[in-house]
């Protein structure tokens, strides 16, 4: 029921089933079904529906206000129980973008560990959608992720860097002679994505529908495996972040990715819930931000 109440709160907060569904990372029909299940469980209506609009019933308005306190108390209870489960040790749970190319996160982690050796740091690696789900479900405290959605008011959305997008190809490829390239010009070249098996279709949809890559897709579990595919001439890899090409030397060429005459950009951010804001979360975010500022 807790998750259904959170869905209900999102619907009211956004005043929209579709926007709430996007925020909660489920379909619009699913969030509508979950609300109906909540109403059946409670035994009364929360909303009065008229065509595509809705209003809160008197009971729904009362339930909504009290549920905000209930969920806040529940989340605090979970945090306190987690501390007990970890012998009251301070724990910081971080989410890291699996395909990111730069070293800022690792440098920030090293500095944080030196400054706060008493804090246990747990790291989850994932693609955008995996990290998004971990964050909204409370399984991580802070996510280092790229921005693919509008910012939500219930979260701190700290922009760390706006990078210019590129691709990497084998230096032996004829494409390596180009000074810039568009997604349309890559329609006959396979796109190599760094992703877990569970997220392959989600990543394919994003890079196909949003970025505009129209060709075949090939998947690799990590950056090293992806770059070996690039060196072998199997396709191109979109570059996440502005880091160096590690130890691959002259085997790989990086080409700026353009659309409509301008180089495509992407925001990389630190996200955390305003309800879960605490000293260690904000301290790590500040250290991470300074790492990006050093590079700039």
Indicate the topology.
Layout: H1 2-14, H2 17-24, H3 28-42, E1 47-50, E2 53-56, H4 58-85, E3 91-97, H5 104-115, E4 120-126, H6 128-136, E5 142-146, E6 155-164, E7 166-170, E8 191-194, H7 200-211, E9 217-220, H8 223-231, E10 237-238, E11 252-256, E12 258-259, E13 262-263, E14 265-273, H9 279-295
Parallel strand pairs: 3-4, 3-5, 8-9
Antiparallel strand pairs: 1-2, 5-14, 6-14, 7-10, 7-11, 12-13
Helix pairs in contact: 1-2, 1-3, 1-4, 2-3, 5-9
Q: Which terms would index this structure?
A:
three-stranded antiparallel beta sheet, alpha/beta, five-stranded mixed beta sheet, 14 strands
What do you see in this structure?
The protein is globular, with a radius of gyration of 22 Å. Helix 5 links the parallel strand 3 (91-97) and strand 4 (120-126). The termini are far apart. It is an alpha/beta fold. The longest helix has 28 residues, at 58-85. The strands form five sheets. It has a five-stranded mixed β-sheet with strand order 4-3-5-14-6, sandwiched between helices. Strands 10-7-11 form a three-stranded antiparallel β-sheet. It has a two-stranded antiparallel sheet with strand order 1-2. Helix content is 42%, strand content 24%. The chain has nine helices and 14 strands. It has helices at residues 2-14, 17-24, 28-42, 58-85, 104-115, 128-136, 200-211, 223-231, 279-295; strands at residues 47-50, 53-56, 91-97, 120-126, 142-146, 155-164, 166-170, 191-194, 217-220, 237-238, 252-256, 258-259, 262-263, 265-273.
